[in-house]
Specification:
five-stranded mixed sheet; 5 strands
Length: 175
């Protein structure tokens, strides 16, 4: 299959990603097919801006990113932002302990085998990928620095504004 791969694209931290990938491709880890369907267990994300965040129970910066993501979910959830945090711990109990101490107000998925993390070529915890309303990976950042939170939020606002300007009417099943 021609064109850049998700692995190669995701090596560019804090940059706008040039290739178009569907939400299904990014979240399901499908290999380079834009026709893949969004897995039902992820819920309706088509047409939404999606922040996919990889985290682990042992990750100190993740404990700082979760309150920020809760804030972003409360602030922009009704505007179309979907946050999906993907835990990579091999033992579910470790993730559950983290979540008991640092609750998530957004969707949490588990990837103990690391298949999805491998698709994104995750090298640091946390690693976050912002997808626009059409499913394109438009930004990525590795680690979480509170000093950079304003920039992360700016990217979310810009993606939501762009997504809103493309959709004058809500798409069927997205609202």
């Amino acid at each position: 299959m021609g064109g850049p791969t998700l692995k190669r694209l995701c090596r560019w931290p804090s940059r706008i990603m040039p290739a178009s990938l569907t939400v299904a491709l990014a979240l399901a880890g499908a290999a380079a097919t834009a026709a893949a369907e969004i897995p039902a267990e992820l819920g309706p994300v088509s047409g939404k801006v999606v922040l996919v965040d990889f985290w682990a129970s042992w990750c100190a910066p993740c404990r700082r990113s979760f309150p920020w993501m809760n804030s972003m979910h409360r602030k922009y959830g009704e505007d179309g932002l979907e946050i999906i945090a993907v835990n990579v711990d091999k033992e579910r109990a470790l993730a559950d302990g983290f979540l008991a101490e640092t609750p998530a107000e957004f969707a949490v998925r588990f990837d103990p085998a690391g298949a999805l993390a491998e698709t994104f070529d995750v090298k640091a915890m946390p690693s976050s990928f912002l997808l626009d309303g059409s499913g394109e990976v438009i930004a990525a950042h590795y680690g979480f620095r509170t000093a950079d939170a304003e920039e992360y939020e700016r990217r979310i606002r810009a993606a939501l504004a762009q997504s809103g300007s493309e959709d004058d009417e809500p798409k069927e099943g997205t609202r």
